[in-house]
């Protein structure tokens, strides 16, 4: 009887260890630099369409009515990236026709006042959902995606410096060639429901 209990205990410990190894490997794969390279949406891909109220209750939409929209995926943590803030402030000031919006992952009453204190007071802040972030394939921030009036992604990347914001804006100004339009990719949320994504 004691041998059977010992066998069950050892088998349970081995199963737990194997599970921890699998979860650890998945965590490294999903958080490494190679995984981050594939975050966001590819140039030419269709961006999610949405209408959300900003902090003042004004409805904001994507795709935009203007020729180009900058969707910034960030919150109060943007203060940790002063160079990105400089780039965003410069871009908003120099490109008044650009429809810029900060999209939060979830409700955060401190984000809008803090962003205003950081110099982004004219930029609307809207509250999204984790599912909307998943549709954009965004896990980390600050991340920016430029979307044109047709709903196509013009540029998309994680940003850490002001020059990256400027380069992405330049790329967004170049029309998407039909040959650039990638095959549709399923958002992670749909793949997770299908059991094909962790």
Strand content: 15-25%
Q: Please give the number of β-strands.
A: 7
* Strand order in the largest sheet: 5-4-3-6-7
Mean pLDDT: 80
Name the poorly predicted regions.
23-36, 193-198
What would CATH call the homologous superfamily of the largest domain? Glutaredoxin
Radius of gyration: 21 Å
Summarize the structure in words.
This protein is α/β, with parallel strands linked by helices and 198 residues long. The protein has 2 domains: 2-31; 35-194, Glutaredoxin (3-Layer(aba) Sandwich), CATH 3.40.30. The protein has 7 helices and 7 strands. Strands 5-4-3-6-7 form a 5-stranded mixed beta sheet, with helices on one face. α3 (82-94) links the parallel β3 (68-73) and β4 (99-104). α3 packs parallel to α6. The longest helix is centred in the N-terminal third of the chain and has 30 residues, at 2-31. The chain is elongated. Residues 23-36 and 193-198 have low confidence and may be disordered.
Provide key terms for this protein.
alpha/beta; 42% helix; Glutaredoxin; 198 residues; five-stranded mixed sheet
Lay out the secondary structure.
Layout: H1 2-31, H2 33-37, E1 50-53, E2 59-62, E3 68-73, H3 82-94, E4 99-104, H4 111-120, E5 125-127, H5 130-136, E6 143-148, E7 153-158, H6 162-172, H7 188-194
Parallel strand pairs: 3-4, 4-5
Antiparallel strand pairs: 1-2, 3-6, 6-7
Helix pairs in contact: 3-6
């Amino acid at each position: 009887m004691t041998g059977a209990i010992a066998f069950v205990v050892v088998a349970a410990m081995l199963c737990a260890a194997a599970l921890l190894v699998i979860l650890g490997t998945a965590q490294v794969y999903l958080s490494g630099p190679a995984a981050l390279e594939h975050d966001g949406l590819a140039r030419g891909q269709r961006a999610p369409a949405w209408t959300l109220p900003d902090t003042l209750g004004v409805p904001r939409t994507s795709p935009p009515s203007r020729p180009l929209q900058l969707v910034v995926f960030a919150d109060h943590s943007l203060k940790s990236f002063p160079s990105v803030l400089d780039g965003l402030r410069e871009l908003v000031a120099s490109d008044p026709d650009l429809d810029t919006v900060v999209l939060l992952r979830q409700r955060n009453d401190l984000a809008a006042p803090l962003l205003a204190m950081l110099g982004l007071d004219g930029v609307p802040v809207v509250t999204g959902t984790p599912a909307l972030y998943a549709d954009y394939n965004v896990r980390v921030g600050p991340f920016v995606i430029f979307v044109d009036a047709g709903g196509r992604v013009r540029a998309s990347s994680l940003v850490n410096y002001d020059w990256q914001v400027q380069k992405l804006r330049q790329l967004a100004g170049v029309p998407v060639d039909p040959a650039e339009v990638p095959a549709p990719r399923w958002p992670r949320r749909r793949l997770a429901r299908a059991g094909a994504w962790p």
